[in-house]
Amino acid sequence: MEVVRPPGSRPLPGGGPRKAVFVDRDGTLNPDLKYLREAERLEVYRGVIAGIRILKAHGYLIVCVTNQSGVERGFYTDADVTRIHERVNQILGRGGVAVDRFYYCPHAPEHGCECRKPGTKLFRDAANDLGIAWARSAVIGDRVLDIEAGDRLGLCTVLVPSRGHREEVLREYPAKGPEPDLLAPSFYGAAVRILHRG
Ligand SMILES: [Mg+2]
Ligand SMILES: [Zn+2]
């Protein structure tokens, strides 16, 4: 049934018409270099371009949501984060794709903000900004906190344990958080599973 709203009112978060795949950044799109400041050092994992390409071919927006506590800790600035995001899209651009929108939390965990994952504020902001429907959308991440954030919103959750952290992350289950809906060996594998989830 169509929900009728007063003219000019904003759509409810999560009730929009579009579908999106929310992607984590460090350990998911690129190797996690721990408080990376220099954009030129950033590389993107193999298969990320191909994965984004098939998701976009099926109408998904690509929204990156990332925790960047290094800003509040003073390891790098907002401008550095912006340069890194430009670098990500520069690399993806070689394959003719891009992240549609980046959202990041600059706070340290002690801050107690709502935007640091597993908090869901940045996902809700994106849903408002872009008109995204949770039920048609998914999240891809390499850590339990990515899965937890997606689980809170009812997204299809896909865990891609990053290289070097696979054993550690899988050991965190089931004690540390909700299990992912899907487990994939790579970003490309995650994209394929999202398209085949039926
Ligand atoms: Mg990560
Ligand atoms: Zn925050």
Overall pLDDT level: 90
Termini separation comes to: 22 Å
What is the spatial order of strands in the main beta sheet? Answer: 3-2-1-4-5-6
Overall CATH architecture: 3-Layer(aba) Sandwich
> Could you give the order of the helices and strands?
EHEHEHEHEHEH
- Tally of discrete structural domains: 1
Number of strands: 6
CATH topology value = Rossmann fold
Low-confidence stretches: 1-6
How much of the polypeptide forms β-strand, as a percent range?
5-15%
> Fraction of residues in helices?
25-40%
Largest sheet: 6 strands, parallel
Give the oligomeric state of the chains in this entry, treating copies of one chain as homo and distinct chains as hetero: single chain
Number of helical segments? Answer: 6
Shape category:
globular
Bound molecules: magnesium ion, zinc ion
The CATH homologous superfamily name equals HAD superfamily/HAD-like
Structural class: alpha/beta
The Rg value, from CA coordinates, equals 16 Å
CATH class: Alpha Beta
Briefly summarize what is shown.
With 198 residues, this protein is an alpha/beta fold. The chain is 31% helix and 13% strand.
Describe this structure in words.
This protein has a single domain, classed as Rossmann fold. It is built from 6 helices and 6 strands; from the N terminus they run E-H-E-H-E-H-E-H-E-H-E-H. It has helices spanning 48-57, 78-93, 121-130, 144-153, 166-171, 187-195, and strands at residues 20-23, 61-67, 101-105, 138-141, 156-159, 182-183. The chain has a 6-stranded parallel β-sheet with strand order 3-2-1-4-5-6, with helices on both faces. Helix 1 (48-57) links the parallel strand 1 and strand 2 (61-67). Helix 1 packs parallel to helix 6 (187-195). The radius of gyration is 16 Å and the shape is globular. It starts with 19 loop residues before the first strand and ends with a helix. Mean pLDDT is 90; it is low at 1-6. Residues 24, 26-28, 141-143 line the site of magnesium ion.
